[in-house]
Amino acid sequence: MYYGIQASLLTGKKIFGITMGELVDLFLQHQMGRVASGKITRGRYSTIRTQLYRHFFRFVGAGHVEVGKRTKVAEIDPKKFQDYAQYRRLNTEGVREVTIRNEQTTFNALFKWGHRNGYCDFERGDFEEIRVRDVERRDTFTLDEYKKLYRFMRDKWLREQCGEKELQDRRFIRDFILIKANAFMRFGELRQLRWNDVKVRTSAENKKYVEIKVRKETAKNRKERTVVARGGEYFERIKTFSKHVRPGDFVFADNATGNTLSKKVYYGLWDDLMQKLSFGGRIKKLTYYSLRHFGITMRRYAGVSFEDLSLLAGTSYNFIENHYSHVDVTRLVEAAMKDFQIDKDGFIIRGADQK
After folding, report:
1. Looking at per-residue confidence, does 257 or 41 come out higher?
2. Domain definitions of the chain by residue range
């Protein structure tokens, strides 16, 4: 034990009194290394950091983040985490079970890493087992809501009185929304898109479409794929007002800096749209993800197979089938409700012009 402690001290490890804040910071440094090596996306890193700083510290510190940071790792009993799921349900209205389960998975990854590196005496917390039996489908737009959205952006939103910088941002966000609904890419994939990933084509019917290469370093599943979608004209329009259109530039760039538009811009303008369209403040919660959901749903209505959708959307066949099979049910209901009559002899008459 003595030699083990000496070896740990020589490598810079703290043997006595490491706090939860220090453990989390070391773990996040490790995760940042995984970002650099392409093992996880920067968006995944941000999610892990948020889970630890917003929820883990607050739970450990009995509601206080700073108290949670100062708590010694050695003082933590793994059984404490039996109450985490219930704590989240009571303190966050509408929190989803899958969200709690994902947070618990992150916390156990923290403990496992800490145990492997000699910072924790335990390898996992004693969490409540959560089984999500029903497939959870996020809210999406109806066709009428989507029409209301793009017509408002076209007819009013860009004509409202606002500063020049905000007007530029609104133009980018308008086309971001339209492209996302047509290409149903993930938020991070589209936000980090560069011009050399985009090729606008013209179909035999003289309609514009686009081929988009989603690079593996920006894809959630770390797999490169090609998305073919309508909306090539939106990319051509962006080039008319963007100041950064070289091959390596971001498609959705801040005109002043050339960097990607900040998330504050994205979410601030989205909230502005939802409030002005009376989409906010309802049971239904529409987000940027709703556009991806809407786009996939519309492709199912158009008859695109689950297999093709899984390739275009960059997700598994089973996920597409489980989340979008309800579209087929809707069409079956329409078929089942087609009108018919039974004549006096008991024969079915399907329509006025059918025998």
Report:
1. 257
2. 2-116, 143-335
